[in-house]
């Protein structure tokens, strides 16, 4: 291939094949042993070479064959630090541009490339590592990358070790015990180590110390302090505290003491979170309760993986069959609040009774615990977390000696520090079927129905309200803000990107979405869904997208339960279906929570 540049008075022509032909000729001369003027020797092997090519391809040889060196006219050069395998591969690269690398020859080749200062070969080796990482080689490659200061390759290998840790612990534990200290500390710093319990990481760190120790006190502390003792059961902590002398240093003992204090914190555990008690896992969407039948709720909890878009049932089911309940997450715990407890008997009709029970799920140890009950039974209400509290707002309950439910204006909040429910500022009027969202620590409540018949009605439709209230976090007083353009009941509110979004509803035949700007105190209509639905689950992803799970819709005069999972991108004002549920689902309540795989 010829490339030309035309100047005013002459042309410059370049042949891209000349360099390849030139190297090819040098390689043939080297193979035939012709015109070689220097011999490189290492460990009994000799490699005749051309001094000019070596000097022009390697900074090491350029300096070695300089005008003031004794080696510049030497017939042979000894390189005892290199192996024949490594030196041969680098010489082939200098003469041809091709580098032959295998897992077994990689350390020797890198040693030669570093020693001879052939940076291009070092870069190729680093790319070879990052492109070929697997459970079988990630520990070996991490050690090689650490030894030769290959920053990018080391980071990639450490990430692969964290990702493959479950397999490595089971099948290649010896590789882990041979891992370099820098990599092991980086892995124990990882925010995600899928499918591995923390107690297994503690045992690994202690086994590694037994295999590679004793280490200086500072290094031992640096390693063990990266463990998250709050994720280890108290019984395991007591046993492990005597497993090694390294566990008896003042720093590690203080961390274990804090972990035990965390375990004893009871209701305050969600607000006593630290890195030591934070799961090494990504957020999942939890779909709590609901079923394919509106009147027969199930106890199953589904988890939705935001990356793979797959559903997995939680091994531990809801303690009760619930409908019209609320869920929220706080401090890495799931709270299931109130609702109606549904009971079924073989020959008896379904019975449902409003509840004030509150259940807490701890994903660290996969256990449910009943915590302090609300002051009042509530169904068709709403709840939300803010700071160190959980608010329960409005709803319905059936008073004693009454046959019809009463709508509530009362508000109460759960003080996690004290483990008790307290009365909050009541709303101006009773509401049920309303929605709420938190933005900048202020609670916004929209729509719903009231005993008084409602206000701001749409002619010819139900008495769904347009009204929006805001509970100011500073004054703890309710105030009215701009109303929605549509009266809504059984809808959802979501906060994302500094705005509040109102989605769908139960009675109104609208598919419209609208957005509230708190700075302007104004609602804006957005792109509607193609099909209206209600009794769906909703969650907001960390990126600010809104997910809608299942629900019900009317089709040809019949109610249909949906399997669709829809995603709304607020910045693009765009809806799309991203996947489907394992089965039709309605009445589920959703929240985001870090969950182990």
Brief description of this entry?
By secondary structure, this protein is of the alpha+beta class. Helices cover 25% and strands 29% of the residues. It folds into 2 domains: 18-131, Potassium Channel Kv1.1, Chain A (2-Layer Sandwich), CATH 3.30.710.10; 283-594, Neuraminidase (6 Propeller), CATH 2.120.10.
Task: Give an overview in words.
With 597 residues, the protein is α+β, with helices and mostly antiparallel strands. The protein has 2 domains: 18-131, Potassium Channel Kv1.1, Chain A (2-Layer Sandwich), CATH 3.30.710.10; 283-594, Neuraminidase. Helices cover 25% and strands 29% of the residues. A 4-stranded antiparallel β-sheet has the order 8-7-6-34, with no helix packed on it. A 4-stranded antiparallel β-sheet has the order 10-11-14-15, with no helix packed on it. It has a 4-stranded antiparallel β-sheet with strand order 16-17-18-19, with no helix packed on it. A hairpin with a 2-residue loop joins strand 16 and strand 17 (389-397). Helix 1 (17-32) crosses helix 4. The longest helix has 16 residues, at 17-32. It is elongated and about 110 Å long. It starts with a strand and ends with a strand.
């Amino acid at each position: 291939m010829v490339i030309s540049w035309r100047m005013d008075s002459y042309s410059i022509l370049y042949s891209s094949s000349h360099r390849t032909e030139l190297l090819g000729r040098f390689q043939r001369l080297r193979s035939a042993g012709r015109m070689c003027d220097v011999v490189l020797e290492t460990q009994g092997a000799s490699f005749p070479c051309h001094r000019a090519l070596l000097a022009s391809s390697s900074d090491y040889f350029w300096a070695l064959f300089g005008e003031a060196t004794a080696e510049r006219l030497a017939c042979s050069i000894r390189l005892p630090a290199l192996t024949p395998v490594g030196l041969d591969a680098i010489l082939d690269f200098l003469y041809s541009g091709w580098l032959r690398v295998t897992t077994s020859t990689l350390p020797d080749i890198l040693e030669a490339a570093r020693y001879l200062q052939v940076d291009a070969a070092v870069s190729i080796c680093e790319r070879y590592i990052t492109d070929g990482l697997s459970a079988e080689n990630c520990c070996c490659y991490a050690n090689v990358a650490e030894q030769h200061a290959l920053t990018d390759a080391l980071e990639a290998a450490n990430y692969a070790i964290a990702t493959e840790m479950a397999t490595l612990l089971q099948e290649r534990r010896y590789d882990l015990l041979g891992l370099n200290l820098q990599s092991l500390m980086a892995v124990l710093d990882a925010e995600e180590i899928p499918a591995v319990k923390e107690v297994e990481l503690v045992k690994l760190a202690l086994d590694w110390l037994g295999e590679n120790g004793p280490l200086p006190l500072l290094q031992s502390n640096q390693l063990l302090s990266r463990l998250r003792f709050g994720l280890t059961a108290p019984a395991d902590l007591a046993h492990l505290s005597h497993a090694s002398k390294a566990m008896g240093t003042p720093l590690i003992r203080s961390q274990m003491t804090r972990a035990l204090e965390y375990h004893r914190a009871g209701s305050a555990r969600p607000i006593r979170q630290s890195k030591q008690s934070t799961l090494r896992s990504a957020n999942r969407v939890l779909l709590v309760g609901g079923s394919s039948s509106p009147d027969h709720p199930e106890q199953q909890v589904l988890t939705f993986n935001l990356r793979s878009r797959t559903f997995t049932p939680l091994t531990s089911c809801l303690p009760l069959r619930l409908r019209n309940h609320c869920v929220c997450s706080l401090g890495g715990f799931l709270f299931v609040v109130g609702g109606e407890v549904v009971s079924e008997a073989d020959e008896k009709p379904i019975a449902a009774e409003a509840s004030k029970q509150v259940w807490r799920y701890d994903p660290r140890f996969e256990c449910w615990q009943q915590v302090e009950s609300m002051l009042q039974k509530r169904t068709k209400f709403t709840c939300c977390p803010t700071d160190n509290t959980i608010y329960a707002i409005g709803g319905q309950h059936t008073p004693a000696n009454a046959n019809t439910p009463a709508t509530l204006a009362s508000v109460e909040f759960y003080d996690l520090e004290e483990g008790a429910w307290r009365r909050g500022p009541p709303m101006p009027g009773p509401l049920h079927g309303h929605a709420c969202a938190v933005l900048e620590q202020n609670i916004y409540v929209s729509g719903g129905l009231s005993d008084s018949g409602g206000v701001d009605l749409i002619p010819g439709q139900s008495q769904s309200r347009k009204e929006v209230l805001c509970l100011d976090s500073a004054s703890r007083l309710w105030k009215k803000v701009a109303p929605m353009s549509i009266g809504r009941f059984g809808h959802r509110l979501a906060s994302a990107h500094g705005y509040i979004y109102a989605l769908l509803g139960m009675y109104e035949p609208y598919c419209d979405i609208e957005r509230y700007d708190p700075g302007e105190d104004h609602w804006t209509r957005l792109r509607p869904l193609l099909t209206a639905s209600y009794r769906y689950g909703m969650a907001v992803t960390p990126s600010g997208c809104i997910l809608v799970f299942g629900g019900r819709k009317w089709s040809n005069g019949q109610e249909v339960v949906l399997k669709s999972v829809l995603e709304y991108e607020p910045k693009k004002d765009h809806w799309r279906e991203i996947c489907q549920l394992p089965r039709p689902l309605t009445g589920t309540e959703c929240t985001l929570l870090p969950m182990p795989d």
